[in-house]
Specification:
four-stranded mixed β-sheet, 184 residues, 11% strand
Length: 184
């Protein structure tokens, strides 16, 4: 089955009693395709006497994964010790994540060159890393990343609305809220 919702192509296979609750929803992605799961659909539906749904990789799972990654990027700009991950760790590893990318895109050419030099040459210097972390926060990189994370959360939740209201859908919505509201 396929549907198009707000520019998102939803694809899924379903077996069992239509509308039966609770439904079992499997969300998967790379490297497997929906076709690899089709043989198990009927057996699972028969064994559980419910609806079994396998969602394709370009739907909920992908959107949830993006929101999860952005949240992880945001953690890099939290105070040290809050989550157990050292502040500025991505900068130390020369990773340009969404908050830092926002800073680069909203800097003058001269500022951008200086920032990139700090990342490339001073990434192990704690003062330089602290300066970059502070700059990202001050210039709105964390705020922008938070907005984008919430945007992907809303798209993921919207993608679930195609499915019947049941415990599985409610659980996936709760998962999306946990992903974006988690403290570590």
């Amino acid at each position: 089955m396929e549907a198009q919702l707000n520019g998102i192509r939803l694809a899924w296979d379903e077996a069992g009693t239509p509308g039966a609750t609770p439904a079992i929803i499997f969300v998967h992605g790379f490297p497997l395709s929906r076709a690899s799961w089709r043989p198990q659909l009927a057996a699972l539906a028969d064994a559980t006497a419910t609806t079994v749904i396998f969602m394709g990789k370009r739907t909920f799972g992908e959107l949830a994964g993006i929101a999860f990654q952005i949240k992880d990027d945001i953690f890099d700009y939290q105070e040290k010790g809050i989550i157990g991950k050292p502040t500025g760790n991505d900068i130390k590893e020369k990773k340009i994540t969404l908050p830092l990318l926002y800073l680069l895109n909203h800097s003058t050419r001269g500022e951008r060159l200086r920032i990139l030099r700090l990342i490339k040459r001073k990434n192990t210097n704690s003062d330089a890393v602290r300066e970059l972390v502070d700059l990202v926060v001050e210039k709105g990189g964390v705020e922008y990343a938070t907005q984008q994370m919430n945007h992907f959360r809303e798209k993921a939740i919207h993608a679930l609305m195609e499915f019947p209201q049941n415990e599985a859908r409610t659980s996936l919505i709760a998962l999306m809220n946990y992903i974006t509201e988690r403290k570590k």
